[in-house]
Amino acid sequence: MRRCEWLILAVLFVAGCQSPPPPSAMQVRDFRLQDVAKGDIDMVAEITVRQHRRYLRELAEKLYRRNPDQLRRGLGEREAAVRALLGSPPRRLSVQWQNRRGGDLIMLGLSEGFRGDRVAAFVYGLRSMAIAAYGGEGDFYLSHDYHPQKIYYLARNVEIAAWRLRARRDARGRPLLLSGGAGPGGTFNASFERLFGKLVALHDHFAQVVAEASNRRIKNVIQSVASAVFFPI
Question: What is the rounded distance in angstroms from the CA atom of residue 184 to the CA atom of residue 159?
């Protein structure tokens, strides 16, 4: 498949992951002078990273709804906490995180002895992991070098993080963070699984786009998620 076909498929795929806005909210982004220095793949990267952030916002909101006690450990108010996780986290959270990022931060947040905001640690761990894999999360330009292997590892790390979120429990067998599973009245909440599946597919697809465009190969890995450690990025 030619490069242009990959890029078209990528844009269609990412666009398909998003809920269409109401007609009144649809806008055409204004042309900016710096867009001249962007290639097609840079545009797709920006769309991918923006969608990643939207998914993280949704994940944070879902986790805080199921674990409201975590807000008392952090910023106290859900919307303020979510904004902080997608912006520049305040010192109060940074101190809790002990200068950790990525998989190390997720592991800290899901350790039994952690006394900080577990939701914040988990979500920002995923965000900082993506920043490392893509080399940023703002604008991308022609000079930017994308590493398909790192982005592929990011997708695998999301799978590992999702498993750890479900599996980590305290000494009494209670989940450290409530997520999916059985809900009130015996209903099953699969929304978390669907959300993690979207995150994995998002980064797996872009990794293939970059590999095809740059004529590089991705080394696939097969391992048990239950025994896996996070891949370094």
Answer: 26
d(CA 185, CA 225): 30
Predicted TM-score of the model (pTM): 0.84
CB 53 within 8 A of CB 77: no
Q: Which residues contact 93 (CB under 8 A, 6 or more apart)?
A: 74, 75, 84, 116, 117, 120, 124
User: In 3D, which of 144, 182, 150 has the Cα closest to residue 166?
Assistant: 182
CA distances from residue 11 to 35, 197, 213 in whole angstroms, order as listed = 17, 18, 14
Distance CA 145, CA 163 (A): 31
Cβ 145 vs Cβ 200: under 8 Å? no
Average pLDDT per 10 consecutive residues for the chain, totaling 233 residues: 53 53 50 64 94 98 96 94 95 94 97 96 98 93 93 97 94 92 63 96 96 91 77 93
Q: In angstroms, rounded to a whole number, what is the distance separating the alpha carbons of residues 170 and 186?
A: 23
